[in-house]
Amino acid sequence: MTYNKIPADTISNEIADLFALAAKSGKEWGSSAHDKAKAALKDALIEAQGGRCVYCQRLIKKEIGHSEIDHILPKLQSGDQDKSNSNERANRRSTAGYPAFTFFPKNLALTCKRCNQRKGTFDARKRRDAPASTTYILEEDYYEWVHPHIQNYSDHIEMVEGFIFHAKEASPNGDNVITICGLSTIGAVERAAAELRIKNAENYAKALAMMLPHLDDYGWPYIIEAVQEHFKDIPSDEIAFTASIFEGGLKRGELTGR
Ligand SMILES: [Zn+2]
């Protein structure tokens, strides 16, 4: 799978207008006055992001509790302000904040709850020792981060089946996302979730079917092995044969992997 940046036309004129009004209102980000703007943005982003979190690429739902709108440049001042000009990774949770971009749609992306919480107030502006621009910069060089509106994820981060992440060619942008969002432990979290889904399935065919939306992430060998592990009395060639029927259905478009 290749993950690209969010297409520029994702932010429609309607969304831009809603957010311009929201910014003008003077009401804080959490106010319910912005619900309509946020809902329109979430609808557009979930589609543009292929239903995935921009940082860990796991499938997310747009409902509250399943996904969150991340401020790529953090909105509020936070932490020790003496460290807010430091370029050291360890000091980057201390930030002067970028309140001017709280309602700037291209400073916003949809993430899973886990990534948003781990990123927190992390400030990924590359040269924090220089004054911040008063206009929003949409150039790769301004960030030490995979900015989802500017950079293609797959140019910086390689993901192998089963959620193993590597920074491509030692990309510092990719490395920051992997480290700050704690992506090295996602694989274990997701495997435990997959095994729970399989365990709770009524039978092995339903377990296989339940894993179809996650096929791109795990691949058949892992899925078949995990299903076999739980439905031990079913011959392994029967499980593999049923998987091949599903695979054929996917290829003919009768089933959907999503
Ligand atoms: Zn995530």
List its traits.
single chain; 258 residues; mainly alpha; 2 domains; two-stranded antiparallel ribbon; two-stranded antiparallel sheet; binds zinc ion
Describe the structure.
The protein has 10 helices and 4 strands, in the order H-H-E-E-H-H-E-E-H-H-H-H-H-H. With 258 residues, it is mainly alpha-helical. It has 2 domains: 8-151, no CATH class; 201-251, no CATH class. It has a two-stranded antiparallel ribbon. Strands 3-4 form a two-stranded antiparallel ribbon. Strand 3 and strand 4 (164-167) form a beta hairpin. The relative contact order is 0.11. Bound molecules: zinc ion (ZN). Zinc ion binds at residues 53, 55-56, 58, 111-112, 114-115.
The number of domains is 2
Bound molecules: zinc ion
Beta-strand portion reads 5-15%
- What strand line-up does the widest sheet have? 1-2
The averaged pLDDT comes out at 94
Order of helices and strands: HHEEHHEEHHHHHH
Give me the Rg, rounded.
21 Å
Q: Which regions have little confidence, pLDDT < 50, spanning 5+ residues?
A: none
Helix content: 25-40%
The rough form would be described as elongated
Q: Can you summarize the main beta sheet? A: 2 strands, antiparallel
Number of helices: 10
Q: What distance separates the N and C termini?
A: 13 Å
